[in-house]
Amino acid sequence: MQNRRRIKIIEEAMGNSSDIIVREVNDNLSYIYLESVSSDDKISNFLLKSIVQCDNVNDLLKQLQRNIYNSHIELIKKFDDVYYYLASGYTCLFIDSEENFIVIETKASLDRSIAESTSEPLIRGPKDSFTENNASNLGLIRKRIKDPKLRIDELKIGRRTNSKVSIIYIDDIAEKKNVDTIKQALNEIDIDAVLDSGYVRDYLETKEKSLFPKMISTERPDLCCQGILNGKIAVMVENSPYVLVMPAILTDFFKNPEDYYLKFTSSTFSRVMKFIAFLITILTPALYIALMTFNQEMIPDQLIISLATQRSQVPFPTFMEVIIFVIIFEILREADMKAPSTSGASMSIVGALILGDAAVSASIVSPFVIIVVAITSICELVFTDMDFINAIRHWRLLFIFSTIFTGIVGIVVAGLILVIKLASLEPLNTPYLIPFSPFNLSGMKDNILLFPTNKRFRRPDYLTKNTKKGAKA
User: Is the predicted pLDDT of residue 245 greater than 50, yes or no?
Assistant: First the structure.
């Protein structure tokens, strides 16, 4: 019989997997599903009841399509598609006299519920976050943007995984050429698997290579929607709680969704503090090395005497002290992030307090180096995007090594290289340092300084040509 032949092909192709369930309802009708991703209750309570009601053998296909109580039912004409639907939690119905077959959605609930974000916590604002469920993630965006012009274009990427990748934008706000660029980049991806949004990140990066990220990776729906409403484009990958929002500019990483839920004065102060923290965390170790090694005349006399006294028993040069403890603190941070939550805090306390105190007591490093490295590490914690934090780490080391040989001159040279590099980046044809370079007045109202909501009438014109926002624009 044709049904048995087709089912045998499926079982052999899937290696007679133990979770394959087959049932022959009668001589003319059979169904198959994967127990691991399908719900037995849905199949028993809804599917079988619908099948029993179909008694006309001659017109069974149309009866099944009409009588099955399920909103997700499709008629499939290509047999090879059966493997995708089975793995997606569908049940496949075969009719012996028909070449085509029916698939019915009977997915089991394998996803965690919507919960508060752990990597981007907020004090005030919505507490929901993206999960691994693609439909739920789209729903979190839909419930915020109830605009008929919201577009969700879907692709399937990955030879083995066939993962859904959704491109989300507002049709009359996002630039068409940017949407086309992203679609083209995604269509050119040819890899075995896409298990997370990080798998497609490198394919979406523009030609200019940089340690600083050119897209935001977020699990916050409100941040994603803020970007979409301003003309940005989101890329959502099935089974990933992190959505990519692009293009991103430098000042985007100094912002927080909470900024728009507080008074603009508080948000502006927070952003200014982040900018100061950025300069401190990237420059302080290099500046300390420069002043202690090459430019001691710039330090007040009483302070230089105190520093010299502290260093009198230390056998290593200043740059060695700093490099050793910068590396140790970075290792402690990595251990704290990767360790189980029950032991992570204890490891940090042991590492930071006991190890630092022991190093000073043993005259391996001076107390002031501990202060410098600790301040540097604390200032790094104000940022949440891991790609941005990793870029800061790399450039901090570059500043340190450039200072070892030339002092303050090395800091200036490294600073010029950093500015030139950032100014050369153009993710999706958007200057990375805008609105400062080139200067953009409309963009200045929502960057380091945040203007009140009733003063921000327009979207940034470097993201979209449709800058009108509301009736007063």
Answer: yes
In this structure, how many other beta carbons lie within 10 angstroms of the beta carbon of residue 27?
A: 10
318-338 helix and 386-406 helix, angle to the nearest 10 degrees: 170
**Assign residue 363 a region: left if phi > 0, alpha if psi is -120 to 50, beta otherwise?**
left
- The pLDDT of residue 472 is 45
Cα distances (Å, whole numbers) of residue 153 to 11, 53, 169, 233, 339 = 33, 38, 9, 11, 38
Write down the pTM of the prediction: 0.86
DSSP helix/strand/coil, 151: strand
Let me know: does 460 contact 231? Beta carbons within 8 Å.
yes
Assess contact for 166 and 134: CB atoms under 8 A: yes
How far apart CA 212 and CA 205 sit, in angstroms, is 11
What six digits make up the tokens of 319? 């740059």
Compute the distance between CA of residue 472 and CA of residue 277 in angstroms, rounded to an integer: 36
Q: Is 291 left (phi over 0), alpha (psi -120 to 50) or beta?
A: alpha
If one compares 149 and 205, the residue with the highest pLDDT of the two is: 149
Q: Tokens representing 290?
A: 């420069």
Q: In sequence order, what are the beta bridge partners of 237?
A: 165
- Angstrom distance (rounded) from CA 223 to CA 437: 24
Can the peptide bond before residue 438 be classed as cis, meaning omega within 30 degrees of 0?
A: yes
Q: Which two tokens stand for residue 356?
A: 């630092």
Q: What does the alpha-carbon distance between residue 367 and residue 43 come to, in Å, rounded to a whole number?
A: 68
